[in-house]
What we know:
By secondary structure, the protein is α/β, with parallel strands linked by helices. 40% of the residues lie in helices and 19% in strands. It has a seven-stranded mixed sheet, with helices on both faces. The longest helix is centred in the C-terminal third of the chain and has 19 residues, at 227-245. It is globular, with a radius of gyration of 18 Å.
Amino acid sequence: MAEALAAGASAAEPWALALFRRSVLKQRKHAEIAAALGPTDGLRCLDLGSDNGVVSLLLRRAGGRWASADLTAEAVASIRALVGTDVHQTDGAHLPFADAEFDRVVVVDMLEHVVDEGRFVSEISRVTRPGGLLVVNTPHLKRSALRRLRHALGQTDEKHGHRRPGYTAEGLGALLAPAFTLESHHTYSRFFSEVVDTAINAGLGALGKRSSAKGMVVTGDDVGRHRKLFRAYGAIYPAVWLVSRLDALVPASGYMLIATARRRQG
């Protein structure tokens, strides 16, 4: 029944895609990642940490031979339900893949969750072929009034499963070196989009959704239990979209950082 819960969804459409079409944040994240990755046809690719699996599904539909991995059994089950095969659970300290297996690796909001970031990067470098491309999407480390408000509402890094609050481009480049050379980076998701995200997380908490090592992952079971509320959110989506467009008026840097890095030869 979950497929019919988001407004306007057809019975054949996966619930996660229906929800994706009502999430300005997930749409922007996927657009940023897809642009950074470039064409993936004919390539062996890996996505790490793709939340409820909708990003994994969309990346696979764009071409290439994909594997996926995440930190929790809940996230892995949600991804597997959407994409089927080649989905794995990892603690970040070891990736269950061969040396130099992947042409492209994308880390989607996972770097800030792993216990040992250095070990995680070492494993990513091991499974990435020389000359391969790494894309990292992670919170941008910045101090702001909105961050203080989130903490006052109980939306702390610990509540979201974050081991660290985020990264600057300089800090990320230093972490990835010497195996990777940072090629590009920019921030996105400014104040108004993040206000929307703060409100959504507050709403999920009010529904009793518990956080995990990967934060709050919305699954098909969640949608099924709260179908009326998700339908109501679908109804107000146009207003949410309009609020997010106000980001264009904000000159400050964004709250998310996306970067590309190249695996060095040898």
